[in-house]
Amino acid sequence: MSDDSFTSSRIEGQSSLGTLATLRRGLELSPELKRGIGLTVVLAVVATLGRVLIPFVVQQTTDNGILADGGPDTGFVLRAILVAAAAVVVTSVAQYLVNVRLFTAAESGLATLRMRAFRHIHDLSVLTQSTERRGSLVSRVTNDVDTISMFVQFGGLMLLISTAQIMLATLLMLFYSPVLALVVYLCFIPLVFLVRRFQPMLGEAYGAVRTRVGDMLGAISEAIVGAVTIRAYGVEDRTAERIDRAIEEHRRSAIRAQVRSVMAFVSGQGFAGLTTAIVLAVGTVLAVRGDVTLGQLLAFLFLVNLFTQPVLMATEILNELQNAVAGWRRVIGVVDTPADVADPGEQGVHQERGPITVVFEDVSYAYPGGEPVLRDVNLRIEPHTRVAIVGETGSGKTTMARLLTRLMDPTEGRVLLDGVDLRRLAFASLRRRVVLVPQEGFLFDADVAANIRFGRPEATDEDIALAITELGLDPWVEGLQHGLATHVGQRGESLSAGERQLVAIARAYLADPDLLVLDEATSAVDPSTEVRVQRALEGLTRGRTSVAIAHRLSTAEAADVVVVVDKGRVVEVGPHRELVGHGGVYSRMHASWAAQQRSGG
């Protein structure tokens, strides 16, 4: 479609926010998740209280039941068992509620995040979107959000419970023996430094994994979509090598991340085992001296396990956290990309339908980091005028079409519709009044009728049938296997290029816009349907304002006004016959086109 080349890198690969700032920003973008955390924390504390109560019951049962001064107290032991059973029930119920609450909040919040990311992508210009591979954008909205979901629902759950468990276990350890509690903390000081050491390493490793996933999906999706072209040029091996490289890079980055993850986990296990051994040794000495009872020592060993278990899990949680943060950064990188064609919405101008006047007022456009492709364009298009924009490849024709349909905004100047800057027009109003028919109409995986109805969902079957008749397409529809109910497949692959364009034309006709922008809608059409497409286009443009990007002589000859663009500037404007007679740029182009037609080119 494009006659302009550009290279840019507008969408951030990853947000540059730190871990805590990323989590805060992520919660801002997922309000349901943020609201759900409060009650979940309370439930997590209740669930943890039940766990921490068990060591206390063990201590009481040992010291006041089994080793009671007057001999074993069976009644006390039974009562202690009932208390332990009740604690288990309360813990289980609270754990269930924590899971349900967190899962619900996570799915609701991340659904909001997905919708925000998807809608924001549609607020970006086609230029900005084109700087990121489609597969990578899809990966950000799907895979990266799935990674966040996995952490919130499992890693986040473990994080909440582990934090509460460590705090409560610490309080009870201090109550039983400050000396043994100090031993535990001294043993774990090195682990704290180890975790701080591993955190940036894991963050970098999992960030690389998320990036490689996007690259891999982009390469695979391009190969699938472009399968026909790949086979036509016999480059299957080269394409396979490219995909193999993407898969291999992903494999290497995943292994690197897992190796670092295992190192962190094994280090934590070593510190936990060492801590238990030291506590047992010191506790035995204290018990012999009478500083702690046997029940307190047993309870303390339980508490050490309750303390070390979440600390051990902290390394695993850290892995998941860094993976989730990497995913969050990629999603935030999309959401925080400035919306360069944002819809003004309710604050925008809503215009009435009717005859339309288009004005380019001192319009210039330059792609980021490049020279201007349009310079000081001034042009007025009157209502009910058929305009053809012509020029050499790279002259700026397609850029004008994109600006006119507000797929991009000018870097200087204004494009006006009935005196209103396009940037002030609400999209709902703009899209009702202006419709683009590209070189190759995109069809969705549905039937012909649904694709025609796409731009006007409320249209009835009778409306569609009338549009088909008025465009003279009844014979073509009758020739389809199931008529309007014929399924077109993904991207309309079951139809020829010409048939896909007929559907796109019918779609535009049914939408009934005031202004049609045609990016040479017949250039990609097969000869068998070209005549039918031309007739349909005549019906489509009749009685309404149209702007056609012309690559063919016939398109320019049929226009009321021809606009000649040369090196980004409008150099000639006028009727076809008048411009041919002037002997200028258009006259030379027309002579070249005519010569090509005579020679069969």
Describe the protein's architecture and organization.
Helices cover 64% and strands 9% of the residues. The chain is α/β, with parallel strands linked by helices and 601 residues long. The protein has two domains: 19-335, ABC transporter type 1, transmembrane domain (ABC transporter transmembrane region fold); 358-598, Rossmann fold (3-Layer(aba) Sandwich), CATH 3.40.50.300. The strands form two sheets. A six-stranded mixed beta sheet has the order 6-7-8-3-9-10, sandwiched between helices. Strands 2-1-4-5 form a four-stranded antiparallel beta sheet, covered by helices on one side.
Mean pLDDT: 81
CATH architecture title of the largest domain: Up-down Bundle
Please state the CA-atom Rg, rounded to the nearest Å. 34 Å
Which spans have pLDDT < 50 for at least 5 consecutive residues? 1-9
What series of H and E elements makes up the topology? HHHHHHHHHHEEEHEEHEHHHHEHEHEEHH
Report on the biggest sheet: 6 strands, mixed
**How many beta-strand segments?**
10
- Which structural class matches the secondary elements? alpha/beta
Q: How much helical structure, as a percent, in the residues?
A: 55-70%
Strand order within the widest sheet?
Answer: 6-7-8-3-9-10
Strand proportion, as a percent range, falls in 5-15%
What is the name of the CATH topology of the largest domain? ABC transporter transmembrane region fold
Report the CATH superfamily of the largest domain: ABC transporter type 1, transmembrane domain
CATH classification, class level of the largest domain:
Mainly Alpha
Number of domains: 2
> Number of helix segments?
20
Membrane topology: Multi-pass membrane protein
InterPro entries: AAA+_ATPase (IPR003593), ABC1_TM_dom (IPR011527), ABC1_TM_sf (IPR036640), ABC_transporter-like_ATP-bd (IPR003439), ABC_transporter-like_CS (IPR017871), P-loop_NTPase (IPR027417), Type_1_exporter (IPR039421)
Domain ABC transmembrane type-1: 39-323
GO molecular function: ABC-type oligopeptide transporter activity; ATP binding; ATP hydrolysis activity
